[in-house]
């Protein structure tokens, strides 16, 4: 994606059930639903992958449902659920300002939950509850349903994601998301297998200290030496071009390295060009091959003619082919493809290099990986990337909300798709619960082991 994109997590709010706005008229609600449906039909680049009968029938069913929603929050939740049917990480519906959700705070309790081995594991609490709810405890039931069933029915249907594994991560991370005052009855299995039950109500937690303590905030760029041969640099965002100058400042140090680790696990994206500036220092190539881009091309007259064209009519007939593709919303415009020519007149750092990646390596960071795909001295280690990029079209919805729709398709230069699948590492390494408990980073450990072998 050429413009800024970061993976945002829902923030906290003081909005309670009794304060939910109810400003939208039934006309507003139908208009907003129809506006989103219309813009998807006209602009969504992956419309050819959507079951159109399902999509249109879902729209029809929602018309009376949205009219009868009790408040603006309930209405926007229906829009988010509708949007999630598209299964795209760059296509989303956002609440109006003032309608946001709470996720970790429950008054006397504060719980941070992550997906570890497919389970809802509590990885952090407020300090006073560390003995009552030990690190590594698992939430096994929510409001009378197993966690798996609750996620499937109450959380996942509202989350837009291009990949199943990110959907699982986010669904478990947002397992107990809701408004202030919302009540959750949960069962927790402690590491000693003892099961406890809690009734939690979303309310601001005044206690500041948490256990385990938060890690120090990551800087835009983090640098350190692993040993006297391996340098480590973490590129944590391509949303601020300052990272390029920070990287250049580290060149005198990096030139001393015999091997390099570049960490992209915390990089949610930004501007593709920012990452490209850094990558040119890490290759001897004079040309870098990035992603190919395309979008839908809608020509109304061709769509009209296409109604009368069958597949057999398109054989050796470009006119009929265009008509047929337009009618079926599959006519694509391919942007001119121009590899990046490098004119950097300085010393390069072409040494054994590991690129660390994971589910949060997204958008422009994925573009970085595509540029690096042909670099034989680079090895990707970790888990699949986020699996979503593109150029969203952003527009307003009634009541102050907004939406965005992905308009651009990105692929490898040879046409291989990664949106919906993620970019795959060369060496897969996953963090287990035991790794969390022992504070191990197996991805980093594998990278160091790999580079030590290269340096022998």
Task: Outline the structure in words.
Among the domains are: 107 residues, PDZ domain (Pdz3 Domain, Roll); 147 residues, 2-enoyl-CoA Hydratase, Chain A, domain 1; 40 residues, no CATH class. 28% of the residues lie in helices and 21% in strands. α9 crosses α10. The strands form six sheets. Strands 10-11-12-17-18-22 form a six-stranded mixed β-sheet, sandwiched between helices. A four-stranded antiparallel β-sheet has the order 2-3-4-9. A four-stranded antiparallel β-sheet has the order 6-5-7-8. With 456 residues, the protein is an alpha+beta fold.
Topology of this protein?
Layout: H1 26-43, H2 52-67, H3 72-84, E1 92-94, E2 105-106, E3 109-116, E4 119-126, E5 138-142, E6 145-146, H4 147-155, H5 164-173, E7 183-189, E8 195-201, E9 210-211, E10 221-225, E11 230-235, H6 242-249, H7 251-254, E12 259-263, H8 272-279, E13 287-288, E14 292-296, H9 300-306, H10 318-327, E15 332-334, E16 340-341, E17 353-357, H11 364-371, E18 378-382, E19 392-396, E20 402-406, E21 409-411, E22 427-428, H12 433-437, H13 442-454
Helix pairs in contact: 1-2, 2-3, 6-8, 8-11, 9-10
